[in-house]
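Fill in residues.
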């Protein structure tokens, strides 16, 4: 009799402890992200306010573009997961919600929060965590390819070889990422690259079906061009409120933002690439507009992108309410 009554009590206590730990972890993550986000917003707001800029409704459109780009990235990532696991049922809105939360968690350096969110969601969804980790790698590689390749071509055509002159290290070093990225497009090579460390860490073989075929990898990498294009539109809109840029400069400006974003992602120890992205924007845009205007554009882009992150968080909260409790990220 005692054993029968003790077991449920023990189980209840363990369940209560798990819930308490989950809430503590949630509050800790929210606190850290909130502090980093608030610091970023305050610093950039102070710097932009010093320039005495007049408000423009184009800033609102630019902010919306930055938020929509995150949502389209989520749709592209969700398709990668469905291709890797045909049995997975992931509505577009659920993929967007997961992506939005991972995007907000980018303020934790090293993308730890971003990947942890997707792994935890996979566990609740009944999807292989290894598969989702691989999809996370695909997502980041495809975003880098979509950022670096078009940006390098556009800037080389626009500025000529001089763009790779004094700033060769800053602008060319990220292109080296394309060397291992090319391996990802070939499933057997990518599997061989992942299999050995995965076997040591997970003590299990990684199924070959967890990797995209060449055609699907190529199609997916092309799909990730869309969020970069949307980001570029937003950046051109805000830049046009600072400088008199011509239609001939729209593509180079959009390419600059994509390049800066890619380099910011590579700075994994810096929360959201703070400072890195701005430096790249100033270096490139100073070839088109006065350096003072390039600095203002970079600061305004950081401010509006941070406000856009708040919109992304709001979008996550709205979509989350439409999802079943057991699959909410």
């Amino acid at each position: 009799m005692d054993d029968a009554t003790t077991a449920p009590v023990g189980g209840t206590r363990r369940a209560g402890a798990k819930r308490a730990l989950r809430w503590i972890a949630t509050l800790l993550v929210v606190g850290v992200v909130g502090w980093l986000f608030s610091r970023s917003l305050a610093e950039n707001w102070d710097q932009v306010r010093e320039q005495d800029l007049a408000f423009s409704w184009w800033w609102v459109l630019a902010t919306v573009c930055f938020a929509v780009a995150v949502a389209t990235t989520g749709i592209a990532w969700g398709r990668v997961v469905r291709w890797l696991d045909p049995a997975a049922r992931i509505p577009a809105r659920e993929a967007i919600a997961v992506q939005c939360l991972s995007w907000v968690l980018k303020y934790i350096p090293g993308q730890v929060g971003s990947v942890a969110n997707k792994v935890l969601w996979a566990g609740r969804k009944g999807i292989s965590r290894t598969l989702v980790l691989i999809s996370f790698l695909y997502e980041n590689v495809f975003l880098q390819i979509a950022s670096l390749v078009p940006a390098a071509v556009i800037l080389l055509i626009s500025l000529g070889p001089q763009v790779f002159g004094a700033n060769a290290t800053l602008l060319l070093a990220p292109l080296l990422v394309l060397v291992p990225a090319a391996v990802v497009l070939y499933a057997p090579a990518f599997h061989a690259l992942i299999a050995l460390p995965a076997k040591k860490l997970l003590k299990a073989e990684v199924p070959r079906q967890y990797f995209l075929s060449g055609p699907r990898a190529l199609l997916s990498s092309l799909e990730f061009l869309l969020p970069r294009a949307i980001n570029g539109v937003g950046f051109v809109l805000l830049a046009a409120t600072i400088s008199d840029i011509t239609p001939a400069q729209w593509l180079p400006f959009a390419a600059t933002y994509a390049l800066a974003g890619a380099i910011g992602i590579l700075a994994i120890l810096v929360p959201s690439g703070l400072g890195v992205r701005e430096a790249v924007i100033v270096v490139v845009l100073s070839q088109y507009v006065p350096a003072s205007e390039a600095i203002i554009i970079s600061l305004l882009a950081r401010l509006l992108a941070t406000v856009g992150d708040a919109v992304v968080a709001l979008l996550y909260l709205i979509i989350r309410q439409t999802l079943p409790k057991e699959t909410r990220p």
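The CA atoms of residues 94 and 173 lie 36 Å apart.
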